[in-house]
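Quick note —
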Amino acid sequence: MQNFHRRIRVAHVVNEITPAGKEMGIVKLLSNLDNKKFDCSLIVFQTTEQSRLVNVGNLPIILTSKKDGNDWQAPFKLCKIFKKSKFDIVHTHSWGTLIEGILGSKLARVPIIIHNEHGSFPSKWYHKILQRFFWNLSNRVLSVSQELKQRISQTTHFPASRIDVILNGVKESNFFPSATLRKQFRRKFNFSQEDFLIGTIGRFSEVKNQSMLLRAASELIQKGDNIKIILVSSGKKKEDLRLLSTSLGISHFTHFLDIQMNVNMLLNGFDIFALTSFSEGCSNVIQEAMFCQKAIIATDVGGNPELIQDQYTGFLVESNNHEQLAQKLRLLKENPDLREKLGKRAQQTAQENFTLTRMIQAYEKLYEDEFNKKYLHLHN
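Predicted structure written out below.
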């Protein structure tokens, strides 16, 4: 328990607010921390058109006008904000806020600095030097999966013993299996109840590798499988994916949906959920699909094996191997009992290991431990 009779002031620093896994996870964390113990704010470098899609509730947002790329003024702007609000803890996220956030914290003499890595990180020689330097200035460095922790350490030579892991978590009341939502999704987007839908959710970018799913679908469709592919999100690669679906001859079977905020309805609408990324930290959407009792196929990369136990709660396939993906998709399509069995096991595993409550408790303990350590040090 904290020994100080006031709330701990915590600021999270993010590059932007978008409906993406990392940003939504941070909003979810701050919105659910015990407000009797913590006074939380979100500091945002930039806003985009997609920012309006994110429901931040009553969470205080502080906007800074950071330029794209390097902005030497950013640390000083943050320093001013940190001093004015007298934050006890500044929590930065990924490369995009590392240097500015930690420099600003040091200038403002913020007592506690925490840094979080969520997945991809730059790995050129000068990035490695800068990351090691600034991580060493932090009180704690966090990772969202054991695999990411090991990859960070092996790539940058930052000691693994200095990295703590806190997995992402899902609010159970927001994600659950529902026949009603399945019908609602299909009515809304003009799919029949009999259509076999294979869906994926994730920004259209190189790292998410949705082209692997399109190539696997092409193999199935050419062999007579009656399936439809649903790709949900937005991003720079959308037009490339459209062109690929046309060149593969499956454009009539491929459906692109813009970002949808009712992810529970989306997941319930799918028969299979697929995630074909080249890299993942701790995938929020895999966890959400597990709570929705979906049959899941994911690439065997990043933190995915820490979420999915191959052949027990879903299938893991080799990265960029669309032939293997096609085999697993057909196996699941032809075996509804197997889909049900995997889905139920996935839901049970998620309820035991990936709840939001568990995640919140881990962060609260981390913040209180660091605060008490600093407080006791100052008063001894």
